[in-house]
Amino acid sequence: xxRVLSRIAMGSALLCLFxxxxxxxxxxxxxxxAPAAALTDGVVKKIDKAGSMLTLTHGPLENLGMPGxxxxxxxxxxxxVERLKVGDKVRFLADxxxxxxxxxxxxxxx
Length: 110
Ligand SMILES: [Cu+2]
Hints:
Layout: H1 2-17, H2 27-38, E1 40-48, E2 53-58, E3 69-75, H3 80-83, E4 89-97, E5 100-108
Bound molecules: copper (II) ion.
């Protein structure tokens, strides 16, 4: 529990530093860079609907410092696992939630 709290506190501290960054005043730069960098491409390899788990082959997750690989993720996006089938292409954002890596955003990719 302590580790979880310190992780959250650290995340908040990093967010608080953001407005002081040199590019903070450059609003156009922000609007373009943030959403595009957030999502990573993945392909659905396996679905566990009961456990709300997805096995994805994914590209590099820059926010987690993780290279591309195939792995299972817990999904915290309501209804997302139910809508998918093996072979679907997705775009997603994974992040630490309570000390484990969880998919927090997920959308279909064409
Ligand atoms: Cu991975």
